[in-house]
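[step 3/7] inverse_fold.run input=structure_tokens len=680
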């Protein structure tokens, strides 16, 4: 190969590399860092606005601000904005209402001046920026650097009109740069690596392909000069050169494949950095959220190291970090024993997560051992020759809709009440809670597999004491210890069915049997549909599958009883549902009407065929004046709209007679007829 050409190419590659490195370091890298930081900052801003909105909505329910403060503490205490930001609240006079960090808890903001900008009071500036709906940026100190007021801080502020509060964020901009510098560094490394790969490929092509071609051209020139060269020798030589080029090309393809595999390895490294806590080496919160996304059962035990701030203050942040590392090691070893997974969520809070619903006795042992693991194992900090015993507080969530959130609430309650642990949404013994969940999950599974989900039918009578309708009620058929057939009521198993995602399978068997039975009777058959069912696409698909099997005559005998409750939020969706099935001849009833929240205005719009007055009003109609007046109002309202009234929970003759006097159209209750497995 021509030596001058080789050196030209080499110099071109070197100069290109230098320009590329300068471009990445001084232009691309800062741009990426700023872009990622701004994204994280915007995410935290949106998170803050949602929390502020939630507090403002919650405040409308309370007249006493002290009650609201307790609710706010549950919402705000465990929340972090970005790496370590938080939310605090103060009133119009600068008095701090709530500050989870403790920075302003013992102060009034009325005396706090922003340094370096004249005599500007912090709370006055925050109020002004809340009015202007702008972020407040100022310089502040750090806990570990109390005399240095050069750290950039940003506060978003929202005003609460009800109690004249100001909800403010407390975030350091620097935290977002630190938060993204790991990703930024990785991108920089990958960029340089890619350039190096491309450079090597260029050199390879130059040496392995250009050089042989150049040699071939030289040989051709020689052939032209030497006129007496034998033609056979020329052909053989050309073939040899082609074979040589073919081998070099195959080698090049192999190199490209190797480089592709190297890039895949780098991608895996990037993913590890995303899911692994950099300090302790165990999985982080991002990994936890991803791991439990599709799990049917999730149990989370949050572990909070008590008085961790005292360890940092007494021994320094270095020892504090070493304590976290040793804690992670102990939890990792402990998790292997019980088949759970250890995570570090944030700061001094760890989690042990179970997604397999271990048996009762093992789970009981797991909870007890979780409480004792640090009591029996001292942390030895080798670098400082220091032995520490730590105490922990546990927040436990078992089979909840939002496991991380509910475990955090449980942890906050445990700390507030000075308990060693707290189980979310129950104050009964943990053993009974776990045992009950496991018991009904298995019962439901067994019932589905053995086709033991059955409808019972409670008769509904008219004023002539004739059965005109049946309400279908779900039961699970089972056998007691003596082999006698028994039926379980829904209140025992429905909550578990929703939590374990078995409800659709239950509803599928129930609906199938109702639809099969409908052509055999001349009576109406009604069944309950909740707003959650209407919002569930899987439920609607299943419902349509069965409805499509019916002719017009049998569709006209179906009644959908839509449960009236404050969970109805999207009335347009409800309107569309009613319209869709009413066009097919199906009747619509509003069930449990009068329970706490009843939208009379919307009843005017959807005009149901029936209104069922809630049993809590009916059962007290002869003893409670308020219940009696409420029932009369519902009856008058319905009669005016030509809507038939059904009274449920008719449990004695006195109530039945009173309802007859009030001109109720239909009656349902144990006084008239109990649910049975058969119908007329």
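[step 3/7] decode complete -> sequence:
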């Amino acid at each position: 190969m021509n030596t001058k050409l080789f050196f030209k190419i080499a110099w071109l590659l070197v100069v290109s590399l230098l320009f590329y490195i300068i471009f990445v370091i001084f232009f691309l890298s800062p741009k990426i860092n700023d872009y990622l930081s701004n994204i994280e900052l915007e995410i935290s801003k949106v998170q803050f606005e949602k929390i502020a909105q939630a507090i403002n909505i919650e405040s409308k329910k309370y007249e006493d601000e002290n009650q609201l403060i307790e609710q706010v503490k549950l919402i705000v205490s465990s929340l972090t904005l970005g790496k370590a930001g938080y939310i605090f609240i103060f009133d119009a006079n600068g008095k701090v209402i709530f500050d989870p960090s403790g920075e302003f808890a013992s102060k009034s903001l009325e005396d706090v001046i922003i340094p370096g900008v004249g005599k500007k009071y912090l709370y006055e500036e925050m109020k002004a920026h809340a009015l202007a709906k702008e972020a407040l940026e100022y310089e502040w100190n750090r806990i570990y650097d109390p005399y240095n007021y050069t750290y950039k801080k940003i506060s978003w502020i929202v005003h609460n009109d009800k109690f004249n509060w100001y909800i403010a964020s407390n975030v350091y901009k620097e935290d977002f740069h630190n938060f993204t510098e790991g990703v930024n560094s990785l991108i920089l490394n990958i960029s340089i690596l890619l350039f190096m790969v491309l450079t090597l490929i260029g050199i390879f092509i130059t040496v392995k392909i250009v050089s042989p071609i150049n040699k071939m051209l030289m040989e051709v020139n020689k052939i032209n000069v030497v006129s007496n060269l034998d033609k056979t020798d020329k052909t053989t030589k050309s073939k040899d050169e082609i074979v040589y080029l073919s081998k070099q090309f195959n080698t090049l393809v192999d190199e490209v494949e190797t480089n592709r595999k190297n890039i895949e390895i780098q991608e895996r490294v990037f993913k590890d950095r995303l899911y692994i806590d950099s300090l302790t080496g165990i999985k982080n919160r991002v990994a936890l959220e991803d791991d439990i996304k599709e799990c049917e059962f999730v149990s989370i035990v949050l572990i909070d190291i008590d008085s961790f701030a005292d360890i940092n203050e007494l021994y320094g942040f270095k020892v504090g970090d070493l304590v976290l590392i040793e804690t992670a090691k102990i939890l990792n070893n402990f998790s292997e024993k019980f088949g759970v997974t250890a995570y570090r969520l944030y700061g001094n809070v760890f989690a042990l997560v179970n997604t397999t619903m271990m048996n009762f006795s093992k789970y009981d042992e797991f909870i007890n051992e979780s409480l004792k693991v640090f009591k029996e194992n001292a942390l030895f900090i080798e670098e400082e020759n220091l032995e520490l015993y730590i105490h922990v507080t546990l927040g436990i969530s078992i089979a909840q809709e939002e496991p991380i959130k509910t475990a955090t609430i449980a942890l906050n309650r445990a700390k507030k009440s000075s308990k060693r642990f707290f189980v979310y949404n129950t104050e009964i013994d943990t053993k009974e809670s776990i045992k009950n969940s496991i018991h009904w999950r298995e019962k439901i599974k067994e019932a589905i597999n053995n086709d033991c989900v059955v409808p019972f039918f409670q008769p509904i009578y008219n004023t002539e004491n004739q059965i005109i309708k049946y309400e279908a009620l779900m039961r699970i058929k089972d056998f007691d210890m003596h082999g006698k057939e028994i039926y379980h009521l829904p209140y025992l198993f429905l909550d578990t069915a929703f939590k374990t995602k078995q409800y659709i399978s239950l509803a599928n068997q129930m609906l199938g049997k109702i639809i099969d039975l409908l052509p055999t009777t001349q009576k109406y058959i009604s069944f309950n549909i909740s707003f959650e069912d209407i919002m569930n696409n899987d439920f609607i698909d299943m419902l349509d599958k069965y409805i499509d099997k019916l002719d017009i005559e049998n569709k006209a005998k179906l009644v959908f009883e839509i449960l009236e409750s404050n969970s109805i939020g999207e009335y347009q969706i409800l309107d569309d549902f009613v319209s869709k099935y009413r066009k097919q001849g199906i009747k619509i009833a509003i069930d449990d009407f009068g329970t706490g929240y009843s939208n009379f205005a919307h009843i005017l719009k959807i005009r149901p065929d029936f209104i069922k007055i809630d049993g809590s009003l009916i059962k007290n109609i002869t003893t409670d004046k308020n219940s009696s007046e409420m029932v009369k109002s519902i009856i008058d309202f319905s009669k005016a709209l030509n809507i038939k009234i059904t009274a449920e929970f008719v449990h004695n003759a006195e109530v039945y007679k009173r309802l007859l006097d009030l001109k109720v159209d239909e009656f349902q209750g144990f006084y008239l007829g109990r649910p049975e497995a058969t119908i007329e």
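[step 4/7] annotate
Residues 225-229 have pLDDT under 50 and may be disordered.
The radius of gyration is 36 Å.
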